Amino acid sequence: MQVDVYGDTLCALVSATALASTGNQVLLHLPEGAHAEQLMRGECPFREPGLADLMTEQQQAGRLLLTSLEAAPQVLGGVIWLALNPDMLAEAQALIGALPERCTRRWLVVNQSTFAVGSSELLQQALLECEAPVADPGAVVSLPDLLIEGNALQSFMRADSWLLGADANWARQLVTELLRPFNRRRDAIMPMRPREAEFTKLAITGMLATRLSYMNDMANLADSLDVDIEQVRQGMGADRRIGDAYLYPGCGFGGLSFSRDVMSLASTLQGSGMAAQLLDEVLNINERQKEVLFRKLWRHYGTNLRGRKVALWGIAFKPESSRINNAPALKLIEALWAQGVEVHVHDPRALGSLAQWAGEREDLVLHQDPYAAVAGADALMLVTEWKAYWSPDLTRLHELMATPLLLDGRNVWDPEFMKQNGFAYYGIGRR
Description:
Rossmann fold; N-(1-d-carboxylethyl)-l-norvaline Dehydrogenase, domain 2; 3 domains; UDP-glucose 6-dehydrogenase; 6-stranded parallel beta sheet; 17 helices; UDP-Glc/GDP-Man_DH_N; single chain
């Protein structure tokens, strides 16, 4: 098939690349900006396993072509795939309104953009706004973005589930055919109405955020009760009614899409006249949790932090990402700066993003080597659980640090083992 994909989001790039890899002719329409410039130079703006190589392969094969957002679609295709940023609903409506022969041919619009609940219906109206009645109208379906950042390509090509919101049977069948190469192990497509698919996407994110914030609250309580939250976590996860997913306490969650989806769900609840008390509290807990390592450091040094040097390992909002959107490290760094702390940072991929966010500062030093970052440090904070940080050279670490103090924001280190090796250790609810 011929498919026109619109957007420069991770979802747009993954969808376009995956669809091209199964033989479709894909035209990727890019909004102006840094991502478009990088892609036109042959660079992939997202560090996702396998994505850059597969994109290059599909472009060389001629199945994936790049163009501007305003360029006309492949008229023979009739499939429009929207994976735009959440604030581009007006642009999406304009794109649909400008489709050639919109009122005389049957277009299929697949909406993967995370717009507000009911947006697919608005796009359907834009598709059907014709002076004369259309005998065979087009359709807009909702196929929410359920990608897992850090494993985005595989989470599309081997999806656990697809939420397919469609009112027209022919549209549902056509999307099912497009997804057939990625849907062979078992039927992972869940048919529903467009509004239900949009709401389910937000509800999933809200539930995951709630579990994370609940565990962070329990970890903070465990600190005051002299309880090891790791034992509690395993006990809870063993109960089949609960399971062990998203039960890992830490120093808060980040990510642009994740945080924005939770806020969108809260806004939807408030807009309907319902109080979003639970989600508001989830977001409040998460913001407080982003400073949990700072509070532990502050208490350890008796509130006297001015002039100290603190090292951070990991500032990306999650491993395998170069993005720092709403990352816990940002609020933590700001709290350290406010107390006159000199911050030294290492991250495998996100240093460029941090430099752009912070600008030139004497109290921020970026390091390409993690051990260079800890030299002379009064504390080391592990913020993002990159695998490279899980088994450090403890002898070297101890020799380099001015004070062997570890603050483990992801509970990846064993408290007893660290203490046996001469470190003072603080985790999240760990003993």
